[in-house]
Write a structure and sequence with these properties.
Largest sheet: 5 strands, parallel
Structural class: alpha/beta
Helix content: 25-40%
Strand content: 25-35%
Shape: globular
CATH class of one domain: Alpha Beta
CATH topology of one domain: Rossmann fold
CATH superfamily of one domain: P-loop containing nucleotide triphosphate hydrolases
Number of strands: 8
CATH architecture of one domain: 3-Layer(aba) Sandwich
Radius of gyration: 17 Å
Strand order of the largest sheet: 5-6-7-3-8
């Protein structure tokens, strides 16, 4: 499996964010998307996730499911943790599992991110770090080959960052691929870097 981007152009609000962007990511590889604020890091991840229109260029997942789009084979972890405060921790994750086409119980995923003891707690009572860990649980609960992570360590303490790094390493070891927009290291060795230089 190989994610290939050819001459991508992104236009938002009538302005060109980036143009002519080409790259590829192979199985077991992590690509760090870096650059100053406004360079288009988040826009690129959202484009791959199907949330931003591709103005020009081509994006393909070779070796993926030909019946599904790239976005349907990817997990997108953005800046905002999309949770319903009135639902419990377990209910929030179960909603996303159902919405994203997954099956089975959510208990193991919650245990993996250290939230199993809070399964019945309304999400409104979670700290910022706990909310982030609940969002990360989606990566565990539903298997998808492409992970798109936008500042994934945001709000996480050191232990949670180390736990996330282990999850990423396991995903890569199983043949998955990761694109992570970040301003700093995320605890995974051997990452390549794609630096976006154009200002928004």
């Amino acid at each position: 499996m190989r994610l290939e981007a050819s001459d991508l152009t992104c236009i938002r609000g009538g302005r060109e964010i980036f143009a002519g962007l080409s790259f590829s990511v192979d199985p077991g590889e992590i690509l760090l998307v870096t650059g100053r604020n406004g360079a288009g890091k988040s826009s690129l991840l959202r484009m791959i996730a199907g949330l931003v229109r591709i103005a020009a260029g081509r994006l393909v997942l070779r070796g993926g499911d030909p019946e599904r789009t790239v976005a349907e084979q990817a997990h997108y972890l953005g800046h905002w943790d999309a949770l319903k405060p009135s639902l419990s921790v377990a209910e929030n994750l179960a909603f996303w599992v159902h919405y994203l086409g997954g099956v089975g119980p959510v208990g193991q995923a919650l245990e993996t991110v250290g939230l199993d003891a809070l399964a019945d707690l309304p999400a409104a009572y979670l700290s910022a770090g706990q909310r982030r860990r609940l969002s990360i649980a989606r990566l565990v609960a539903i298997q998808r080959p492409v992970w798109l992570l936008d500042e994934p360590t945001s709000a996480l303490d050191r232990q949670a960052q180390e736990d996330l790094a282990r999850l990423m390493q396991r995903h890569l070891a199983n043949g998955g691929l990761i694109l992570a927009a970040t301003h700093g290291p995320i605890g995974v060795d051997g990452a390549r870097q794609l630096r976006l230089g154009s200002a928004a």
